[in-house]
Design brief:
The chain has 68 residues and is mainly alpha-helical. It has a two-stranded antiparallel ribbon. The radius of gyration is 11 Å and the shape is globular. The relative contact order is 0.25.
């Protein structure tokens, strides 16, 4: 059976976004996570968040949390 990917928790996501300057957009978030070596699970979650400006890491975490 294929493994079902789970939405990563916000702490997992934030460890790949450390040092990012806010406010920032989705593209910058995706680039930062990729450059920090985020796994496919984290990248898939970040690709699903709305394309908008994020004022803080908490705003990103909130959107990732809505994906559950």
């Amino acid at each position: 059976m294929p493994e079902k990917s789970q939405t990563p928790n916000p702490i997992e996501v934030q460890k790949f976004l450390g040092g990012l300057d806010y406010p920032t957009g989705k593209e910058d978030i995706l680039q930062k996570a990729k450059s920090e070596g985020a796994d496919d699970n984290v990248m898939q979650a970040l690709e699903q968040i709305p394309d908008q400006e994020y004022a803080s890491p908490i705003a990103v975490s909130r959107e990732v949390g809505k994906l559950h």
